[in-house]
Amino acid sequence: MINRRNFLLGSAGVATAAALYNSDWLTELKKEYPNVLMLIVDDLNDWVGPMQGHPNAKTPNIDKLAGNATTFTNAHASAPLCGPSRASIMTGLAPSTTGIYGHINDNDIRAASDKTAHSIFLSEYFKDHGYYTAAVGKVFHQRVADGSFDDYGGRVKGFGPYRDEKFVWNDPRTNTDWGAFPEKDEQMPDYDSAHWIADKLATDHDKPFFMACGFLRPHAPWYVPQKWFDMHPIEQVQLPPYIPKDLADVPEIAKKVTDHPMMPTTEWALENGHYRDIVQAYLASVSFVDSCVGIVLDALEKSAYADNTAVVLWGDHGYHIGEKDKFAKMTLWERATRTPLIIKPPKSQGKQVSNKPVSLLDLYPTLVKMCGLPENPTNEGRDLTPLLNDPNAKWQHAAVTTYGEKNHAIKTEKYRYIRYEDGSEELYDHTLDRNEWRNLATDPQYAEVKRELAKHLPAIDAPWSEKTYYDGNDYFLQKTVEAGAKGRM
């Protein structure tokens, strides 16, 4: 067996790349080091079959992947917003460490703080250790940082295709809208991305690869061809759990932080007869992107790499579809933090389910460990391979989600604890209240529970990075301005 440490490109004492290319070691390299295929789905909540988040969900390809993988049913984003969530995953650093709380240009991440200045992006780490790297679509917030991949297949601007006029929701500050459009799957950018990465999988590679495919749907606008709407007949669509005045028992700062005036509210959707239409459109968008996932997985199965490739599928955060009177992400409640995380190692142990609280921040060290690479000591996430070996293994950790400076949610198997920057709190017992309808934070009998959960709060609360900007609400817009950041909508 080859000595892994000495065989890695870029490690001390390694043979030169030229020597490798002129030897039979390349064949051994391809056998020794697993490939990685990372599938990223934008704004995907738990409405997929393996997570049973909605009874109408139809995701046969994600279901098939989960049938030979470990599904983490209690996985949470480190931030409930695309930009900071993806920056955290790619750097292996928490938002509270970097100050990246809002969106950030891909090439500004390293300039965001002292902590990110010398960070090595996840793809770069594999690249530095002898892997060929390729990506397409939305991987970082916009595209990919310059030089982070060997090959990049590009991404359309925005989240098109777009109509000349929106169907229903005309607020210019948001992509939010819903309806059947365009006519064919081939007109959707995700379809092109799936085929681009499928072509890469059909290519003969002379060394291990790390590939990432970033899909746009179900990010708004919820536009997909009519056939995906037909898969979810409107009369059969079930509405999510919702109660009026759900926010009556949350602190005032929670209402400010989660106020997104550009989005429709559930009250508006009910009064105007659009709630079921929106649910149908989101379900249709999820089913469409599932078909794109299927294109890639089918290509992998037909390739020479099927038996030596780790597959990981994740969403960058969750999404409210009417729960708590919102159609948005950008909150610290379960709907916005919980997201799919499915990991299939090269040598899978079959279908497994773990309810241990984990974070997308854990992806970096997990993939590094799974592929036998040296540990990156700057990673702040935790290696999940013990849970891949035993999904019920002892796990004393909590998942932490941060939304703006000093606003955190702590998630365990039983509780969600939220503390805001002014000290206000929320507490929910998920064994009794999965919908988070009853805030227990002011109940004296839970004082000790809160103290224990507070031990998981970040030790560092970095100020807003001047390189970030926020495009969600007036409260955080003012925060970015105060921090000297761009503060643009």
TrEMBL record:
Keywords: Calcium, Hydrolase, Metal-binding, Plasmid, Signal
Pfam families given in the database record: Sulfatase, TAT_signal
Sulfatase N-terminal domain boundaries: 34-372
Record keyword Mitochondrion present: no
Superkingdom of origin organism: Bacteria
CDD domains tied to this protein: iduronate-2-sulfatase (cd16030)
Cofactor or coenzyme needed: Ca(2+)
Family: Belongs to the sulfatase family.
Database matches in PANTHER family: IDURONATE 2-SULFATASE
Stated name of the protein: Sulfatase-like hydrolase/transferase
Native source species: Catenovulum adriaticum
